[in-house]
Predict the 3D structure of the following.
Amino acid sequence: MEIVLQNVGKQFKNGTRALDHVTFTVTQGEFVSVIGPSGAGKTTLFRILNGVETPGGTGLSFLMAATYRPCPEPPGRM
C-alpha cells in the first residue's frame, strides 16, 4: 500500500488554514513521524488521512498493490 498526498490543503469555515500545499508519499514498510508545534496541522492531517475531514487541493490517494502469496504446499504423504 502507498499513501500519496499531492498539494493537499485544508481551510476551515472561519478562515483558519490548517494545511497548505502538503505533498508527500509513504510507501509500504516505511515508518514516518509527524512532528511540529501546537496548531501546526498534525491532527488535521491525520483526520484527513482517516476520512474524518475532507481535503482541499489536488488529491489524496491510497494505492493498494495486490501481493501474490502462494499457499504452502501440503505435506507429502509417506
